[in-house]
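Why run this: before we spend reagent on co-expression, it is cheaper to look at a predicted model of the complex and decide which construct boundaries make sense. The entries below are exactly what would go into the expression plan.
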Amino acid sequence: MWSCKLSTGTVYAADKEPRTEHRVLVLVAFEIDALCACKILQYLFQCDHVLYTIVPVTGKQDLERAFVEHSEGVQVCLLMKEDDLENIPEFRDVFLEDESDEDDLDNDSDDPETGQKKRRFDEAALIKRMEKRKWEENRKKILFEYTEFSGYGLSSSLLLYDMAWKMSKDTNDLLWLAIIGVTEQYINQHVERDKYMESIAELQPHVSRLNHRPDDEESSISIDCLKVMFDNELRLTMYRHWSLFESLCHSEYTTCKFKIWTMKGRKRLHEFLADMGLPLVQCKQKFTSMDVSYKESVKDLFKKFQDKYSINEQDLFLPSFHAQYGYKNRYCATDVIYASEAVLQDVEKEYSDSDNFLHTLDLLNRSKTECMEKGIEMAKIQLSALVKQVQSFLDANLVISAGPFLYAFVQEGTPDVKFFAKPINLARLARFTLEAYCCVSRNKKVKTLPFVLGAHHNSDMGTMLVIGIPPVLDKSLKNCFGKAFEQAAATTNSRTLHDFFDSHIIELKSEDRSKFFDALISLLQ
Amino acid sequence: MSLIRHSLYVGVVEKPPPPPLTEEQYGEMEPKYPEGGHYLSVLRPHGDDCVRQVFEEMRALFEQNQQDVEKALDGAQAEMFPGIRMRHAALERNKRCVLAYVYNRLQKIAQMRWEFGSVLPADIKYNLAEQEVQWFIKYTKCLATYMRSVRAEGGLDLTQDLKPPKSLYIEVRCLMDHGEFETQDGGVILLKKNSQHFLLRSECEHLIRQGVLEHSVH
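The model came back. Tokens follow.
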């Protein structure tokens, strides 16, 4: 949604002197990047005393409803969402609507003029009509090409941070939010690595600028202040708050690399740890309680032995940032993302979606450390469920090739099915499963196949969530399923709901599953 | 606040008053002011029953004393006097306690005028005695008259900003569906559960007190 880009610019462009009588309505999607952007915006608005209303929206219908409800007396509306389509067709190709033409036509046909003039007009009109028909065909083609693939653009929190910086209102806290937003895009594979590195390179000068302190006593600051530091992080999920062993068993890359779900894979992991000289006892206890000498050398050891185990450095290490405040709180950007996504996707029945939204906003508040700790624990539970699910997919050979794509279903009655009824978790499960399947499968071709995953969603409605993701080898991360789902549903009259902002996730009536998939197969062949 | 401890005179009077109070009943008669509790639990129903019992006790004590005094005057029985004095002291004590109870309640009610404004929530009003309601109305009138007289043009609302505010605007979260809310400049805001708003502090202060909004602190 490029409206975000346009409108955020305009609030401040139009209101050089922020006028308080304007109330801004901010609609925020359920994505961490959007939440971070929303928090940055909140800060900016508060600085300038701009009145605002923030409403979380889960999907397109919700967006429409919220807009109708809250739009009274609102001058500016902002939509916080991270995805952004590239190669936006030119305005005149899509919206050009020559109304004067039509008027001319009507007027002239009523005109009781001489035949000659009429004829001449007809010629001109015919040419015009032909042009118009051509233009319309062209428009259809452009629009189809535009919507055929969907992808993600620049992180909106980075965009807003940039704006804050240009207004000289940037702080370390805002910078940290921007970092989280950027990292979330990469973790959820919304952008490729090059783009992520570009953003990181853009953020790094800001980090050094805002965290630069001379060493003398005078300029030392309180330990409670936020300090952000650049680091080449290990891509092990939340290892600082877990044990090294558990983290190795729950990180996408290491699990797939060692094929941890097989006996042989487990042995290999043990061998790896033994090679590095890390005792199992140390690895299995909390990372914080590990022997200091081991703790400090973990990164070097991984680096030293990565070649022997043919581990790709790019996959194991991620240039990222971590934040430190107080004595105890040290989080790297990915920790925050896992924790906040777990809270955002909380399956507790007593909390509604918007409750989860507020809890996540609280979590991103640095002052509420207990929220963060709770979030980390929840993330561990959800991640364990996810790994178990991947294992059961592989053990029971539930990933099936349909020809043009692979597919799998999380059946109703699976113990942790409730976790996968949420789009972010489902997407993560899909990526993890595909990655794991590609590692196990002997067939080389699977790496070029996209993957469709369905999960039971709502038993009252009898619906399931279906997500499609691009193949492992496709690094451009362009997703063709949005349009494909739409067409498959249209040709078979399946009852689907394209409500999510991500077009490659839909809700489908479970009964219509087989005919929908038949159509999808024939469509993608 | 402790109210009544009658155990002193029991045993001294020859005939104890008809309804002997048990320990549990004493407990019931004490109005409780839990610290840091919700405002609803602060003001309990006016203890009509409790106060009436105290009055009955006082009447019994008084009658007993009356009889004894007459006897003492007639027969000049000197051994009656300590008993009479004892009962008199108990009477005085009961009086003090009842007055303190009434006074404390009034203080609380006055405080509520500052917190809730001139209209009390229904559940609190229900707990007030008729006289207390009357007193509240008078107090409100007094305060209103004073506030009108403070400044020449239209007076000054003293109940606002009891603590000095840090900013003109605050961020609030909606805790329940409240419906539409009209702001001072005529704009309309829909207060829907879990939406967040940046509003004038003075406008939403009373909504925060009512529990519709919650001030979110960063």
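Residues 1-18, 82-89, 92-118 of chain A have pLDDT under 50 and may be disordered. Chain A touches chain B through 24 residues (CB under 8 Å). Bring this page to Monday's planning discussion.
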